[in-house]
Amino acid sequence: MKATGEVFLVSRQSDPSVLLQAMRTGVNEFFSKPIKREEVLEALVRLKERREKSKSPEPGRRGKLIDVVGSKGGVGTTTIAVNLAVSLTENTSVQSVALVDMNLLFGDVPLFLEITPSYHWGEITKNVSRLDPTFLMNVIARDPCGVCVLPSPVNLDGHNPVNPEIVANLLDLMQKMFDFVVIDGGQSLDETSLRILQMSNTVLLVSTLGLPCLTNTNKLLKSFDALGYPSRERTRVIINRYLSKSEISLKDAESSIKKKIFWTIPNDYRTAVAAINQGKPLCQSAPKTALTKSMRGLADALIKGKEKKKKGGWRFLKRG
């Protein structure tokens, strides 16, 4: 049936392939028989939210695009992207936050938030002509914390290859709809990733105080300089799993990469892994830990556009 321009479908079949086919033909909500009253009420709530979100964006509105990139695999890029997005939603000055998983094939953002999205951004490559606020809000999943999540495809079979133009159009639309768009950029540096770097207001380059990571961080910064983007001013180096008694000091790291460290996140591997295994953000699983407080501080610093004031003026460094 149609309701204010949207299509609700009722079927006895609930196979995932049926759901995808229905979505591709324009179905907004799917109910399997027998219909449950609670599911209908939830669908109507989502309909209302989509209607509010899909209103014409305010003229000139441009949300901030934050690309979280790892200097190498395993440095905690997804953990930081997920918890940064959630921390941004906690701030009363922020109205809306989206989280985009750009890890092809191995994106696992939904696992960190214990959600089971029906769709992913691969659907957009199949329906790019339909890309508008209404279609986008139908594809996006919502985390209980309020973050709008756009997962990566489980696989690319049956989908048009992603390309820089499609992603650029997607992110341009999202910037008109959300205050902040956080991207889990992984470690890829293909053409699409480079386009995201070019568009981003802020690039968070995640490293650790280990020689391999710092070496890669230095190489990436030099590559950015050679490309001409992102600028040094827009690139912020984050030290994850920071230990104050590390063999390599923060001063040594800054000297090595020839750039100030923007933020440090304390080493608390047990708390971080426990949160991942529970499928909960840190603010829910461990709200009072130094790790969670550091993520909130990072979010606040990015909202304000400046760092906390230290003696002697504005500094880029926060020591865990």
Written overview of the protein:
The protein has 320 residues and is α/β, with parallel strands linked by helices. The protein folds into two domains: 2-53, no CATH class; 64-314, 3-Layer(aba) Sandwich (Rossmann fold), CATH 3.40.50.300. It has helices spanning 16-24, 37-53, 77-90, 109-113, 122-126, 133-139, 164-177, 191-199, 211-227, 250-257, 269-278, 282-285, 290-304, and strands spanning 2-3, 6-11, 29-32, 64-70, 97-101, 141-142, 148-150, 180-186, 202-207, 235-242, 261-266, 309-310, 313-314. Strands 6-7-5-8-4-9-10-11 form an eight-stranded mixed beta sheet, sandwiched between helices. The chain is globular, with a radius of gyration of 20 Å. Residues 306-320 have low confidence and may be disordered.
Task: Give the SSE map.
Layout: E1 2-3, E2 6-11, H1 16-24, E3 29-32, H2 37-53, E4 64-70, H3 77-90, E5 97-101, H4 109-113, H5 122-126, H6 133-139, E6 141-142, E7 148-150, H7 164-177, E8 180-186, H8 191-199, E9 202-207, H9 211-227, E10 235-242, H10 250-257, E11 261-266, H11 269-278, H12 282-285, H13 290-304, E12 309-310, E13 313-314
Parallel strand pairs: 2-3, 4-8, 4-9, 5-7, 5-8, 9-10, 10-11
Antiparallel strand pairs: 1-2, 6-7, 12-13
Helix pairs in contact: 3-13, 7-8
